[in-house]
TrEMBL record:
<dbReference type="GO" id="GO:0007030">
    <property type="term" value="P:Golgi organization"/>
</dbReference>
<feature type="binding site">
    <location>
        <position position="454"/>
    </location>
    <ligand>
        <name>Mg(2+)</name>
    </ligand>
</feature>
<keyword id="KW-1003">Cell membrane</keyword>
<feature type="domain" description="P-type ATPase A">
    <location>
        <begin position="174"/>
        <end position="237"/>
    </location>
</feature>
<feature type="transmembrane region" description="Helical">
    <location>
        <begin position="1144"/>
        <end position="1167"/>
    </location>
</feature>
<feature type="binding site">
    <location>
        <position position="897"/>
    </location>
    <ligand>
        <name>ATP</name>
    </ligand>
</feature>
<feature type="binding site">
    <location>
        <position position="619"/>
    </location>
    <ligand>
        <name>ATP</name>
    </ligand>
</feature>
<feature type="binding site">
    <location>
        <position position="456"/>
    </location>
    <ligand>
        <name>ATP</name>
    </ligand>
</feature>
<feature type="region of interest" description="Disordered">
    <location>
        <begin position="1"/>
        <end position="54"/>
    </location>
</feature>
<feature type="transmembrane region" description="Helical">
    <location>
        <begin position="983"/>
        <end position="1003"/>
    </location>
</feature>
<dbReference type="InterPro" id="IPR032630">
    <property type="entry name" value="P_typ_ATPase_c"/>
</dbReference>
<feature type="binding site">
    <location>
        <position position="893"/>
    </location>
    <ligand>
        <name>Mg(2+)</name>
    </ligand>
</feature>
<feature type="transmembrane region" description="Helical">
    <location>
        <begin position="1033"/>
        <end position="1057"/>
    </location>
</feature>
<keyword id="KW-0460">Magnesium</keyword>
<protein>
    <recommendedName>
        <fullName>Phospholipid-transporting ATPase</fullName>
        <ecNumber>7.6.2.1</ecNumber>
    </recommendedName>
</protein>
<dbReference type="Pfam" id="PF16212">
    <property type="entry name" value="PhoLip_ATPase_C"/>
</dbReference>
<keyword id="KW-1278">Translocase</keyword>
Length: 1251
């Protein structure tokens, strides 16, 4: 173990994971981790490091080189790499994306190759070749060719349609346009023509075509606002800012044309939040980071235009790197069906071999001595047996009919259209229907065990709404009139008295408006004034309307609320902020902005009023605000109670407070503040300490309550899926508190749930690993494995874990090289063996740890993983797939969900306002999360039941049909003679028995859609594979064998020593074949009638129509006219009319059908009476059941003074705009000439330093 620890050590092993940050980037290199080591380095480590560096002189982080406006630079020989044999191409990808599989030349060969990889298709191709050999062919070649061509054709057309859709999508994206510098000027070019090193111009509301370095923009200091909804589902704007040097010199077209900057940066990777590089220009190096990079898929907002240099294009862009590998998905039933087909192949070979041996024996004993059987060929009995083996392979091939695969494809296609046509999954607000983007996974929707869901944009609308507040101990936000009387129904508050109201806030407490307008309580006005002044929101006016841009949607919701209640934020400069207070404009001097960060969990602003008073206004999480309150706060307990109430209603809370500051106190503090602002190292920590000094002895004003609006029907959907024994895991990049809050809001978590966190389960897993290690001694293999639970049974537990803890627990933390005498290559065989053994031990330990984690997590009723990367989302899904062998479904709406969607067995994309990246990679898409319950509980369950019923029946009817040949062989010398007419064999699966079973596969339903939703417990049959498994397969096999025996032996017994009405014996071969065929068609069609649960006119017509079609075609084929035209193909002339005119034959047919079906009816009756299934019970009482049960939200129990959790404010994932505001870089002003800009910038810098 010591050598193991020496060779590989985890990064920052002794440190605790940070819940507030997203863990390391997915592609983080060892060198980057080494950079984070302590500055003090032991001497021996330094010597080892220097020695290793001399051996790795070529190793560099920044190996990606980009030259602006120079395409030839990227085509140099050392940038070329071999793709195929001697064909070389540049390592720099072009900007065209390709998601399609085929082109015009490759479609036919590639599609046929893929289709013949399917065992059944290849089998029928071999069969077709065998049928073309006259010596062994017992059936005409067209009996196989025609069905094979139909199968290949239908599948090829389906694949072609899917690929054409992908081509159209790719062309739509690749043919978008933007302006690119060509021949010294900007010209319009298509996205697919853009290359690395091109300088492009983007305009407002344009999608960004590649990953580009921002050079300049129309905004002050070349700020650029982008919407990242395609990447992370967040609709609030982020800002990027160009380098000061490029902002100054690269504004005009002629300067951009001559720009010749050279960039060295990291290789393409999937890190959305990191970028490291250097710009070399004008003999100077300029560092580049992620704040200067515009990523493909984002949208330019609130910026008239911007210029950028393409760094990564096409497949190299970060959004494409995050898309994951496209996997070919097949259903569980597909795999099971393949194994069953292989089983049938084995049975077929064994039966054919047995019959061939029987024929050889029969030839030796009987055939060689019967002169009337001589066929002119002097073959030995063994050779005749060999030929008959292949003859029986051909005859009995219908045990695996090729029409099975045609029918399966048709059923899946039809079920996909039913999903597309379902009006109850249509979202009229955005004209978005549900869409089955694949036709091969429908029945798998009825077998889901785990649902992995994104949060933002999937469970929530990402829309924050101001719902309630507590001011001076008084709660506002209930339905009340101006006299403080409560009403169950009351009109919304009319904000028309306020000229700045946006009309979007739905508020019902008229008493609050009365308090604001009357001014009786100064704290009420002070409360909304704080909301209007204490923020980092930026504002602009468009057509006289105020437009706010906030760093987080929560902050935007609060400022908009203040605006509607009469305190509108109008404008700001670097040092002032202007507020309209009930129609009166007042300007305040901003002395300092104390911005948010994840540690502070609060923000403050210090302002000087027009009267000269200095005040600090602060807002933040109650946990940090209450620690800093003055001891004399009379409303502290009332506000605490209000916070508990808001938390019980799953609202996100925030405390507001203020403080009067003396001039002298401020001046002393300001000196410390300015000193901390100029610190070159650990500046943030120094500022935080200074902030702490002023943010104390605060006076509590109250609290706000914001609703992170869930999508409609989310709690109902989660409740019903839980009743269907489907476990839901939420995987999100959001903060832990926010994710937990949404868990309570959507009732994934309840007040009765015991929540476990990363540190809790880490201890449990560590204990389990120690116990397993102790049991893993010499005698471990003789001891049966012990299944231990992590938690006592009966408790409702949930797991909330962050990405950092996930890496810690799953041993996924990045490793760094041990610096203690670690060599690049082992010098001796012993060292090599030790290293290999160490690596194996680490892998085994990691695998066991991961399995334990999955076992623990699956014992919980709900799991929430927050602050996770896209790669971690996919990893969690893969772990459950790997260790639980469970069917998984992933649902998301953004590009950060694509990897997860592709990894799961079924991927669902939400086609909302967050773009189409997830939808393009999904198997199914719709507009709202609530449609998931209908997709699974109705369409999924029906599809599973229909497919299982179809397969069971299909195997049955083909065993019953084919095995008649087997029994017949005992009476024909095992001569591979068919028991039916050739045309009957050809048309049996195509016409005579295909339509009824197809309609059952398309239309059957055990209970209605409303009852399926009302009783989610019906869903478990699919999860447990109860309707189609090997047991059901062998039941169908036995049923088919018994039916084939009855079909053969009853007519055989009836025909023995029988005389017809005309005195002649009807026991000729052709009449016997017609009798068996007629009984078979009637039996199998009536059998599907017994299996049908949902009768319609179409079902009845198909059953009786198939029987009528059989008799009609048979009489035509047995007519003299068609025999005259095709004498060799139609040889049963007059058989049907001669045989079926005799009542004895009809009695034989009726008896055969009755003996086949009556036992089935009796067994079904006893089963439904004695052992009814859940669906049988519901069917029996469906008339007295209500059409649909109205779902009721769970009643919450509120206990005053007891707060088991706290709903938390969703802080921005990055700092707010405070730095921009205080520096003045965001303030729009008229653009000055270039020289003036440089001079002003220098002067401003000097003033800042001087102050």
């Amino acid at each position: 173990m010591n050598s193991e620890r020496d060779s590989e050590t985890t990064f920052e092993e002794d440190s605790q994971p940070n819940d507030e940050v997203v863990p390391y980037s997915d592609d983080e290199t060892e060198d980057e981790l080494d950079d984070q080591e302590p500055a003090v380095e032991p001497e021996q480590n330094r010597v080892n490091r220097e020695a290793e560096e001399t051996r790795e002189t070529l190793r560099k982080d920044c190996t990606w080189q980009v030259k602006a406006n120079d395409r030839s630079f990227h085509e140099q020989p050392h940038f070329m790499k071999t793709r195929f044999f001697c064909i070389k191409e540049s390592k720099y990808a072009n900007n065209a994306i390709k998601t399609y599989k085929y082109n015009a030349f490759s479609f036919l060969p590639m599609n046929l190759f893929e289709q013949f990889k399917r065992a059944a298709n290849f089998y029928f191709l071999i069969l077709l070749i065998l049928q073309a050999i006259p010596q062994i062919s017992t059936l005409a070649w067209y009996t196989t060719l025609f069905p094979l061509l139909v199968v290949l054709g239908i599948t090829a057309i389906k694949d072609l349609v899917d690929d054409v859709a992908r081509h159209k999508m790719d062309n739509e994206i690749n043919n978008r346009t933007c302006e690119v510098i060509k021949d010294g000027r900007f010209k319009v070019a298509k996205w697919k023509e853009i290359q690395v090193g091109d300088v492009i111009r983007l305009k407002k509301n344009d999608f960004i075509p590649a990953d580009v370095l921002l050079l300049s923009s129309s905004e002050p200091n070349s700020l650029c606002y982008v919407e990242t909804a395609e990447l992370d589902g967040e609709t609030n704007l982020k800002f990027k800012m160009a380098l000061e040097i490029t902002h100054q010199y690269l504004q005009r077209e002629n300067s951009l044309t001559t720009f010749d900057g050279f960039i060295e940066c990291e290789e393409p990777n999937n890190r959305l939040d990191k970028f490291a590089g250097t710009l070399f220009w004008r003999n100077t190096r300029f560092p580049l980071d992620a704040d200067k990079i515009l990523l493909r898929g984002c949208v330019i907002r609130n910026t008239d235009f911007c210029h950028g240099l393409v760094i990564f294009a096409g497949a190299d862009t970060k959004i494409m790197k995050n898309s994951g590998k496209t996997r070919f998905k097949r259903t569980k039933i597909d795999y099971l069906m393949n194994y069953m087909v292989y089983t049938i192949f084995v049975v077929l070979i064994l039966v054919s071999a047995g019959l061939a041996i029987g024929h050889a024996y029969w030839e030796a004993q009987v055939g060689n001595y019967s002169w009337y059987l001589y066929d002119g060929e002097d073959y030995t009995p063994s050779y005749r047996g060999f030929l008959n083996f292949w003859g029986y392979i051909i005859i009995l091939n219908t045990m695996v009919p090729i029409s099975l695969y045609v029918s399966v494809e048709v059923i899946r296609l039809g079920q996909s259209y039913f999903i597309n046509w379902d009006l109850q999954m249509y979202y009229p607000e955005k004209d978005t229907p549900a869409k089955a983007r694949t036709t091969t996974l429908n029945e798998q929707l009825g077998q889901i065990h785990y649902v992995f869901s994104d949060k933002t944009g999937t469970l929530t609308q990402n829309i924050m709404t101001f719902k309630k507040c507590c001011i001076n101990g008084q709660i506002y936000g209930d339905h009340r009139d101006a006299s403080q009387n409560s009403h169950s129904k009351i009109e919304q508050v009319d904000f028309s008295w306020n000229m700045f109201a946006d009309g979007k806030l739905a508020f019902y407490d008229h008493y609050l408006i009365e308090q604001i307008q009357s001014g009786k309580e100064s704290e009420v006005r002070q409360f909304f004034f704080l909301l209007a002044v204490c923020h980092t929101v930026m504002v602009d006016r468009t057509d006289g309307q105020l437009n706010y841009q906030a760093a987080s949607p929560d902050e935007g919701a609060l400022v908009n609320a203040a605006r509607n209640f009469g305190f509108a934020f109008l404008a700001r400069t670097q040092n002032t902020i202007t507020i309209s207070e009930l129609g009166t404009e007042r300007t305040y001097d901003v002395l300092a902005i104390l911005d948010f960060n994840s540690d502070r969990k609060r923000m403050s602003i210090i302002v000087r009023t027009p009267e000269g008073n200095i005040r600090l206004y602060c807002k933040g999480a109650d946990t940090v605000i209450y620690e800093r309150l003055h001891q004399m706060n009379p409303t502290k307990q009332e506000t605490q109670d209000a916070l508990d109430i808001f938390a019980s209603e799953t609202l996100r809370t925030l405390c507001l407070c203020y403080k009067e500051i003396e001039e002298k106190e401020y001046e002393e503090w300001n000196k410390k503040y300015m000193a901390a602002s100029l610190v070159s190292t650990n500046r943030d920590e120094a500022l935080d300490k200074v902030y702490e000094e002023i943010e104390k002895d605060l006076i509590l004003l109250g609290a706000t309550a914001i609703e992170d609006k869930l999508q409609d029907g989310v709690p109902e959907t989660i409740s019903k899926l839980a009743k269907a024994d489907i476990k839901i895991w939420v995987l999100t990049g959001d903060k832990k508190e926010t994710a937990e809050n949404i868990g309570f809001a959507c009732e994934l978590l309840t007040e009765d749930t015991t929540v476990c966190y990363g540190e809790d389960i880490n201890a449990l897993l560590h204990t389990r690993m120690e116990n397993q290690r102790n049991r893993g001694g010499v005698y471990a293999k003789f001891v049966p494995p012990v299944h231990e639970t992590f938690f006592p049974p009966g408790e409702n537990r949930a797991l909330i874990i962050t990405g950092s803890w996930l890496n810690e627990i799953l041993l996924e933390k990045k490793t760094k090289r041990s610096k203690i005498l670690k060599l690049k290559f082992p010098r001796t065989e012993e060292e090599r063996r030790m290293r290999t053994q160490s690596k194996r031990c680490l892998e085994a330990r990691k695998e066991q740890r991961q399995k334990n984690f999955v076992d623990l997590a699956c014992e919980c009723s709900a799991v929430i993983c927050c602050r996770v990367t896209p790669k971690q989302k996919a990893m969690v899904v893969d772990l459950v797939k790997r260790y639980k062998k469970a069917i998984t479904l992933a649902i998301g709406d953004g590009a950060n969900d694509v990897n997860m969607i592709k990894t799961a067995h079924i991927g669902v994309g939400i086609s909302g306002q967050e773009g189409m990246q997830a939808v393009m990679s999904s198997d199914y898409s719709f507009a709202q999360f609530r449609y998931l319950q209908r997709l699974l509980l109705v369409h999924g369950r029906w599809s599973y039941i229909r497919m299982c019923k179809f397969l069971r029946y299909f195997f049955y009817k083909n065993f019953a049909f084919t095995l008649v040949h087997f029994w017949y062989s005992f009476f024909n010398g095992y001569s591979a003679q068919t028991a039916y007419e050739d045309w009957f064999i050809t048309l049996y699966n195509v016409l005579y028995s295909s339509l009824p079973v197809l309609l059952v596969g398309l239309l059957d339903q055990d209970v209605s859609d409303k009852l399926s939703l009302r009783f989610p417990g019906l869903y478990v049959v699919g999860q447990r594979d109860l309707l189609f498994n090997y047991k059901k397969f062998f039941v169908s096999l036995v049923h088919g064998i018994l039916t084939s025996m009855i079909l053969f032996f009853i007519p055989l017994g009836a025909y023995l020593q029988t005389v017809g009405q005309d005195g002649e014996a009807p026991s000729d071969y052709q009449s016997f074949a017609v009798t068996i065929a007629s009984a078979l068609i009637i039996t199998v069609n009536f059998q599907i009638g017994l299996d049908t649960s949902y009768w319609t006119f179409v079902n009845a017509f198909s059953i009786f129509g198939s029987i009528a079609l059989y008799f009609g075609i048979m009489f035509d084929f047995h007519s003299a006219g068609i025999h005259v035209l095709f004498p060799s193909a139609f040889q049963f002339t007059g058989t049907a009319s001669n045989a079926l005119r005799q009542p004895y034959i009809w009695l034989t047919i009726i008896l055969t059908v009755a003996v086949c079906l009556l036992p089935v009816v009796a067994i079904r009756f006893l089963s439904m009476t004695i052992w009814p299934s859940e669906s049988d019970k519901i069917q029996k009482h469906r008339k007295r059941l209500k059409a649909e049960e109205q779902w009721k939200r769970r009643q919450r129990v509120f206990r005053r003074g007891v707060s088991s959790r706290r709903s938390a404010y969703a802080f921005s994932h990055q700092r707010g705009y405070a730095d921009l505001i205080s520096s003045g870089r965001s303030i729009r002003k008229k653009r000055s000439p270039l020289d003036a800009v440089i001079a002003d910038g220098t002067a401003e810098y000097r003033r800042t330093v001087a102050s």
